[in-house]
């Protein structure tokens, strides 16, 4: 998964409107600092940023009103969080997202992958599904047409062209598995945090809207000026230019 942005709006008599944006450490906090913050400042906002190191507190802070938006999660994660916690969070707009990649310290190409090789995948169902789809995009496996694309299981694989053996691990372990196992599917944020280059992947994920990160707000703010201005900031030329210059390899929504 990727990172968190949270936004809290306060009005002060002498300084105008303040947006406090919370982001988890890594490429998405960089995106807030470099791309989103300047675009909001151009609209007259004062922007404050708070970083988080987990995937729960930013949503709790958003729900409690300490923050007004976040950017670290995909829509599937958000919906599960709403269901499990009784919150009413809303995905506002997609942002470019670091794709999962198939990395190897052993093989220099997809064709060189040996029969029977082990490949590490994320342990959680959503991200393991992304991994299986990336393997299918690489031509290494085929998945049943009626499979649930958000919860793909080994039983859904109809063809395993190189008889790959799947090893499921916590996402934080996957960058190390590039060397330890030889083949590993690493979510983009973990790859970048580990100093890996997206361009080194044998295959990068072809994302769909279920897996791209979103700016998320409270549903009650859907029609607010803040929501409109966040959308304007993401659609601004500054935001797009910064993505092109500083976030190469990120998967972009169609509107980009």
From TrEMBL:
Membrane topology per record: Lipid-anchor
Family to which this protein belongs: Belongs to the NlpA lipoprotein family.
Compartments where found: Membrane
Entry protein name: Methionine ABC transporter ATPase
InterPro entries: Lipoprotein_NlpA
Signal peptide positions (record): none
Pfam families: Lipoprotein_9 (PF03180)
PANTHER family: D-METHIONINE-BINDING LIPOPROTEIN METQ (PTHR30429), METHIONINE-BINDING LIPOPROTEIN METQ (PTHR30429:SF0)
Biological source species: Salinicoccus halodurans
Keyword tags: Lipoprotein, Membrane, Palmitate, Signal
């Amino acid at each position: 998964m990727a990172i968190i942005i949270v936004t809290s709006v306060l009005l002060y008599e002498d300084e105008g409107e303040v947006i406090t944006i919370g982001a988890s450490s890594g490429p998405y906090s960089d995106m807030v600092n470099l791309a989103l913050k300047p675009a909001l400042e151009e609209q007259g906002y004062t922007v404050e940023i708070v970083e988080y190191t987990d995937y729960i507190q930013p949503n709790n802070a958003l729900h409690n009103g300490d923050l007004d938006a976040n950017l670290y999660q995909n829509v599937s994660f958000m919906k599960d969080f709403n269901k499990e916690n009784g919150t009413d969070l809303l995905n506002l707009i997609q942002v470019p997202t670091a794709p999962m990649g198939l990395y190897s310290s052993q093989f220099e190409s997809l064709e060189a992958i040996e029969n029977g090789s082990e490949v590490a995948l994320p342990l959680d169902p959503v991200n393991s599904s992304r991994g299986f789809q990336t393997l299918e995009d690489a031509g290494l496996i085929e998945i049943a047409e009626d499979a649930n694309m958000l919860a793909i299981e080994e039983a859904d694989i109809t063809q395993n062209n190189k008889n790959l053996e799947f090893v499921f691990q916590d996402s934080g372990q996957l960058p190390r598995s590039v060397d330890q196992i030889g083949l590993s599917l690493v979510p983009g944020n973990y790859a970048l945090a580990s100093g890996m280059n997206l361009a080194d992947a044998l295959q990068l994920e072809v994302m769909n809207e279920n897996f791209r990160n979103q700016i998320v707000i409270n549903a009650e703010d859907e029609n607010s000026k803040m929501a409109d201005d966040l959308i304007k900031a993401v659609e601004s030329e500054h935001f797009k230019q910064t993505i092109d210059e500083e976030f190469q390899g990120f998967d972009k929504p169609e509107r980009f």
